[in-house]
User: Fold this.
Amino acid sequence: MSEKQRDQASISAVAQLAALSPHFLQVAACPACHSKLAIDYEQEALVCTSPVCGLAYPVRDGIPILLIDEARRLTYRTVNGNRGRSNGDVVAP
Assistant:
């Protein structure tokens, strides 16, 4: 895949995330811990907002894949005493 194709695919994935219904984000919950989900545009995923769980669920063809087996665990880091995700800006619903 060329760099141009990767860029277009990335733009497409971000557009798909942005197109998720606000109502969906209000009612959707992490299948593992039932916390709220938020959009992480950098990771192109829906992420659990619980600092204990920290799973990221992929979005494929505009469809959130909310299966625990398909999720990735995000890593955390501590900055100035605050704990936060080390990868991606998370936008809460």
